[in-house]
Amino acid sequence: MSTSAPPVAPGTDAARADRGRLVGELIFAVLAVALGIFVFVGAFSIRAPGAGSQVGPRVFPFLVSGILTFSAVMVLIDVLRGRLGPQEEGEDIDSSAKTDWVTLGKLVAFVIAHIVLVDLIGWALAAAVLFGGVAWSLGAKKWWVAILVGLALGLVVQIVFGGLLGLSLPLGPLLGWLQPLLDAIGG
């Protein structure tokens, strides 16, 4: 729910904070619109097996990109009209805390590693690295459990999306033996 920003005396700390919030929300809205457009355009490059009136793998990305773009445009319009989102006031929010750049750097590194590793070692193993790395970065005590959970989730996604829905998720050299199983599931 948006609220109109109350008037603030120029040059005060509150005015600078409001300006910072406005800029932050504008950047968020513009990036969300750009992401929606990017996903929409990228959905055209998805190979759809067969033809006809079947619901294919493009439907979900088109739907998500449409909802994302519409929502982001509405947020952008609200921000341009001066209606900013409410500030966080939860008890678990420390507004004076600084950004933990080390943790953020680890998270970005694991996402980049996932992107690079998908084609090299396959979806399921890359998902295990991503899941385990993110869990470790966020403070998981038993990193090896996180990797095992990530591997299990990666295999489930591989079977459901690769086998049942026919999407092309690379198996990689270590999991190539799963291809006959995926072919049998997919029919």
Automatic annotation (TrEMBL):
The chain crosses the membrane at residues 26-46, 58-77, 107-131, 143-167. Keywords: Membrane, Transmembrane, Transmembrane helix. Residues 27-170 form the DUF1468 domain. It holds the Pfam family TctB. InterPro entries: DUF1468. Signal peptide: none annotated. It comes from the Bacteria. This is Tripartite tricarboxylate transporter TctB family protein.
